[in-house]
Specification:
Structural class of chain A: alpha+beta
Shape of chain A: elongated
Keywords (chain B): Sigma factor, Transcription, Transcription regulation
Helix content of chain B: 55-70%
CATH topology of the largest domain in chain A: Phosphorylase Kinase, domain 1
Number of helices of chain A: 10
Number of strands of chain B: 0
Order of helices and strands of chain B: HHHHHHHH
Helix content of chain A: 25-40%
Number of helices of chain B: 8
CATH architecture of the largest domain in chain A: 2-Layer Sandwich
Protein name (chain A): Anti-sigma factor
Shape of chain B: globular
Strand content of chain A: 15-25%
Largest sheet of chain A: 7 strands, antiparallel
CATH class of the largest domain in chain A: Alpha Beta
Organism (chain B): Thalassovita mangrovi
CATH architecture of the largest domain in chain B: Orthogonal Bundle
Family (chain B): Belongs to the sigma-70 factor family. ECF subfamily.
Largest interface: A-B, 48 and 60 residues
Number of domains of chain B: 2
Distance between the termini of chain A: 79 Å
Organism (chain A): Thalassovita mangrovi
Strand order of the largest sheet of chain A: 1-2-3-4-7-6-5
Oligomer: heterodimer
CATH superfamily of the largest domain in chain A: MucB/RseB, C-terminal domain
């Protein structure tokens, strides 16, 4: 009887263990198992592996973060245009109006460049906020010149938002090398001398995105994509303060 | 159930899987967010008869492949010695050590094996569903799981078969 059968192979056991067999095949393995201690040990071990994995990564008991449920409403809830920063060189706005055309275009777009951009912004922030003598290349007092110059170098019309409502006054801006060409960095300072930066760069991925956080030590970045431009607000601030600054910047797009 | 509600119902499982893949809750949530945004943008592409769950996991897995294809970012490389976790239930010292060993071993699995193993282990995904989510034939999934489970046994020193152990000695 079953004793005469060769030992169960690993392939047979895996298929059995993962429930990939039909009922007769399943039954066949069950009949042979009692005579195959090695196979029994293997099955026990696999069950233990599954249990370990479930213990290592337990089902989250924390509530689903709002940004995830918000991501489901992004398409309908988000405004489609951004007057304060507009990509003149790209046909983004026209395509946005096109609805289906834009969506079908977006789904073949390359992967989002979110994370490299956020990293670059955090690095730029760390380099320049500590600068005493030359924190910016062009001061805010030369605003018109700054906007023209930076827009030309970045290849899109850019102009920094007013964050004075949150206590942060524009100091000025500079340009930086970036993966996608040239990026811009605006620096703001509040009455206590605390500085935040806004990093701006063109993105090859035309897809808009919701707000996301990135961090490096105590420094937090909040980034998003809009009309082919990526923005990162960076500061040594709690996330809720950063979010309100980001929202304020974002709302000035409306 | 409306499409968005059905998607929303899958968020906890997607988060758990993404967290396990990246061993970082925040990065895991980023991955889930990417996946959800793409799912909403592409809902028209889902085959009406296909499993929504497998489709969502497939989007998430494709995003994870993209992420891994790019240069791994230093911020997310965790030294094996620094691995730590909070067990769901209080564990004895031995259990704790065994879990840490398992965690370190999973971290060292090739990405394709890790994706397959975590998918079936965490979610009790049906075998067909897992093959669909991973976009591979069932035979491939079978051998991938066998390799992953054997590596895990070797790395955690639970492989009791001396001949097998010898073969795997460096």
């Amino acid at each position: 009887m079953p004793q005469d059968r060769p030992p169960l192979t690993e392939q047979e056991l895996i298929a059995y263990f993962e429930g990939a067999l039909d009922a007769p095949a399943q039954q066949e393995i069950e009949n042979r198992l009692p005579h195959d201690p090695a196979a029994q040990a293997l099955l026990e071990d696999w069950a233990q592996q599954n249990e370990d994995i479930r213990r290592l990564f337990p089902a989250g008991s924390d509530p689903v973060p709002e940004r995830l449920t918000e991501a489901l409403r992004v398409r309908t809830a988000r405004p489609a245009s951004a007057p304060w920063l507009r990509v003149a060189a790209m046909a983004g706005l026209l395509l946005l109006g096109g609805g289906a055309g834009w969506l079908s275009h977006a789904q073949f777009a390359p992967a989002a460049q979110m994370r490299p951009m956020a990293q670059a912004a955090l690095a730029a922030h760390a380099t320049y906020v500590v600068e005493v003598a030359h924190p910016v290349e062009v001061r805010a007092s030369e605003r018109e010149h700054m906007d023209t110059w930076m827009s030309r170098r970045i290849g899109a019309h850019v102009s920094p938002p007013d964050l004075a409502g949150s206590g942060f006054v524009l100091m000025g801006g500079r340009i930086l090398p970036a993966d996608t060409g040239t990026a811009g960095l605006y620096m703001y300072e509040n009455a206590e001398g605390q500085r935040i930066t806004l990093y701006v760069s063109r993105q090859t991925d035309p897809e808009d995105s919701a707000f996301r956080f990135a961090s490096s030590g105590a420094t937090q970045g909040l980034h998003w994509n809009e009309n082919g431009i990526g923005y990162v607000v960076v500061g040594d601030l709690p996330r809720d303060e950063l979010k309100s600054l980001g929202t304020s910047a974002y709302e000035q797009l409306l | 159930m409306a499409f968005l509600d059905e998607v929303e119902a899958q968020i906890p499982d997607l988060r758990r899987y993404a967290h396990a893949l990246l061993r970082d809750a925040e990065a895991g949530d980023d991955l889930v967010q990417d996946c959800l945004e793409r799912a909403v943008a592409r809902q028209g592409q889902k085959r009406p008869d296909g499993s929504l769950r497998a489709w969502l996991f497939r989007i998430l897995i494709n995003r994870h492949r993209d992420l891994m294809r790019r240069a791994p970012r230093p911020g997310h490389l965790v030294a094996v010695d620094d691995l730590s976790f909070e067990p769901a239930l209080p564990a004895s010292q031995d259990q704790h050590l065994a879990l840490r060993e398992t965690e370190a071993a999973i971290a060292r699995l090739p990405e394709d094996q890790k994706r397959a193993l975590l998918l079936v282990a965490l979610h009790g995904a049906s075998f067909d569903e897992a093959a669909e989510a991973l976009d591979i034939p069932k035979g491939t999934l079978m051998s991938r799981l066998a390799r992953a489970r054997a590596s895990l046994r070797d790395m955690t020193g639970r492989n009791a078969d001396p001949a097998h152990q010898m073969r795997n000695k460096r």
